[in-house]
Amino acid sequence: MTQAAHITFIEHELDGFHQSLVEYRQQMGAWYSRALDTVSHAADMPSLLGMDRVLRVGDAQQSVGLGDADFSTVARCPAGGVLKIQSRFESAYDVAIGNIPVEVIGLDDGSSRVILLDEHGDGFHECAAGGRYQVRVQGGVSAQQVDALFASYAGLTADLEQWLREQWQGFKPHWQQSPASAIGNGVLAGSWAAITEVWDSIKQVQAILEDPLKFVEQLGSEAAKLAQIATDAPKVMEQAMLLASDEAALYLLLRTAMIWLEALPPSEVAQAAAGFMVSLLIDLVIGVVLTIALPAAGVAYLSMRLVKYGAGILQSAVGFVTGVLTILTTFMRAVDRYKAVAVHR
User: Fold this and answer.
1) What is the side-by-side order of every strand in the sheet holding 101-106?
2) CA-CA distance, 259 to 212, in Å (whole number)?
3) What is the end-to-end Cα distance of the chain in Å, rounded?
4) DSSP per-residue codes, 71-98
5) Which pLDDT does position 55 carry in this prediction?
6) Rounded to whole angstroms, how far apart are CA atoms 136 and 138?
7) Could you tell me whether strands 101-106 and 112-116 are parallel, antiparallel, or unpaired per DSSP bridges?
8) Sign of the dihedral defined by the CA atoms of residues 75, 203, 152, 92, in that order
9) What transmembrane ranges does the database entry give (predicted)?
């Protein structure tokens, strides 16, 4: 790809960035109205590339694909004698799946009652303290509810696009001044195949956050600090885990990293191109999520993974993580405000 063609390609990707989640939904192909696994196998996509719904009952919860309209979980009635039931999308935003019936079955006394969750996806059931209850969802997810879910990411999408455009303003002159035969092939930014190739690897970040001490090789001394955060600052770890389980947010981060890598100045692309662009893409997104929990952990991870590729690549990668972290910090604060409002409805 010539330098002129590459510049046109990057600007086309930037102009279409606001449609990222629209493309995601199109690729999944009406997945909210079918069983997620069926769609995944039919399209040869990783099963984790679809968003989930979650049922929370007391201290118990069950996550399933959006296409599952009949599932359940079992919980014990708390000392207060009231079970709180919540139906949500598994998203950093606490977006409700409301106005659906759930059946509450007393496993000890055989009782049964159907409750209609309110528009906020909440319901309550008086119960016998210590008793076991099965709560069964009997309702699917509507297209309108899915629309509401994806609409909640508009702010994050806009912020990431603005950051990418600012980065491109610095990168573009290097492309304009480069030889006509400058490298750049658009393999990452425009390819759904690249996304499916890296997705399962990116989801490894969940395993790292759940048990950092198993990943000392990748995190070094920061593994112990990351593990300590789970005890000392559970709210911080909760935010990182939320991001790691939010497929829509991860997809936006992945698209951001793909375009950013393709937009890097030719000299840096020459270092990064060859055979490890996909590996670098994975490391960038994992590094961002780890940084939410502990900035030093994200840098340590990138340092250990990228040191073999040279200081230039590592410095660029740390710059990417630092820049995106500012946006994600704002995003997670907005999420907290959203949840605070939801709690007080």
Assistant:
1) 70-76, 132-138, 101-106, 112-116
2) 29
3) 54
4) EEEEEEPPTTSEEEEEEEESSSS--B--
5) 93
6) 6
7) antiparallel
8) positive
9) 276-301, 313-335
Q: For 203-216, what is each residue's pLDDT tens digit? A: 788 889 889 999 99
pLDDT of residue 237: 86
Euclidean distance between CA atoms 72 and 84, whole angstroms: 14
- For residue 345, the model assigns a pLDDT of 42
- Distances 271 to 225, 278, 309 between C-alpha atoms, Å: 32, 13, 8
Fold that domain 49-141 belongs to in CATH: Jelly Rolls (2.60.120)
Whole-number Cα distances in Å, 8 to 150, 185, 256, 262: 28, 12, 17, 12
Distance from C-alpha of 95 to C-alpha of 277, rounded to nearest angstrom? 35
- Where in the chain do CATH 2.60.120 domains reside? 49-141
Q: How far apart are CA 235 and CA 256, in angstroms?
A: 26
Q: How far is CA 66 from the centre of its chain?
A: 15
The two structure tokens encoding residue 81:
């004698």
Residue 272 has pLDDT above 60, yes or no: no
Taking residue 54's Cβ as centre, other Cβ atoms within 10 Å add up to 18
- Axis crossing angle, helix 277-293 with helix 222-232, rounded to the nearest 10: 40
Separation between Cα atoms, residue 45 and residue 28, nearest integer Å: 9
**Contact indicator for 114, 146 with CB cutoff of 8 Å:** no
Which one is predicted more confidently, 218 or 337? 218
CA distance 235 to 292: 11
Dihedral, CA of residue 321, residue 324, residue 327 and residue 330, to nearest 10 = -20
Report DSSP state, residue 2. Answer: -
Residue that the structure tokens 């961002």 belong to: 288
pLDDT tens digits along 70-104: 899 999 999 999 999 999 988 887 788 999 999 99
Single-letter amino acid code for the residue at 290: L
